[in-house]
Amino acid sequence: MNQSLKTLRTYASAAALAALCVPALTVPVPAAAQAANPLGQVVEALRAISTLRANFIQTDRSGQSVSGVLTIKRPGRIRFQYQQGVPLLIVGDGKALTLVDYEVKQVQRWPIGNSPLGALLDPSRDVGKFGTLKPTGNPNVISVEVRDRKHPEYGIITLIFTRKASAPGGLELSYWVSLDSQNKRTTVQLSNQQYGVAVPDSAFRWRDPRPNTRR
Fold it and tell me: pLDDT for 192-203, tens place per residue?
């Protein structure tokens, strides 16, 4: 791995927060709106996903990359399993995001109820409040920018979808780009997406490395 752990730690949480915005978009949208605009199509496609497993490559703004496996299980659960040799794990349970650093034996957690991710907890929230379509110049590519303008500290996440007949709802999440409040840019590219795979709830549990702490 050509990226130091110090740099990876800086970008890991931003990448995971971006990922969690994917199921955050899965809130009810009126049927007429779904048919009339691509944003509604994106919401429907995401709602059609029960589980997802994919390879990912996470790249920071300097071009350094690290890989791993992403697992999502609705509602709201996600896991970033980094490549061998990277002692980090990121797990989301729909209520909080946890970054586990096994090298330094530390655990960080971020509540997500007050961010755009809060749509996971309150499906009545209007996706239009956070999601905006951005032009791509390609009818087969849809770009959705997610931000909470009242809370710029949450950063900006741009989700890129491509039309694919075999994907749920005919759209596949290809990659996303996150920009945090310090202008740190992280890109996460997905490949080998698998839908409807069996994912046990135990996949979203984690071993607590802190002394005298059990989970």
Answer: 999 999 999 999
Name the fold adopted by 5-204. outer membrane lipoprotein receptor (LolB), chain A (2.50.20)
* Paired tokens of 180: 């945090």
Q: What is the mean pLDDT of the chain?
A: 78
pLDDT in tens, 138-171: 999 999 887 777 777 777 888 899 999 999 889 9
Which tokens sit at 1? 């791995």
d(C-alpha 27, C-alpha 122), whole Å: 8
Biggest alpha carbon distance in the chain?
55
Where do the domains of the chain lie? 5-204
Q: Report yes or no: 97 and 115 within 8 Å, Cβ to Cβ.
A: no
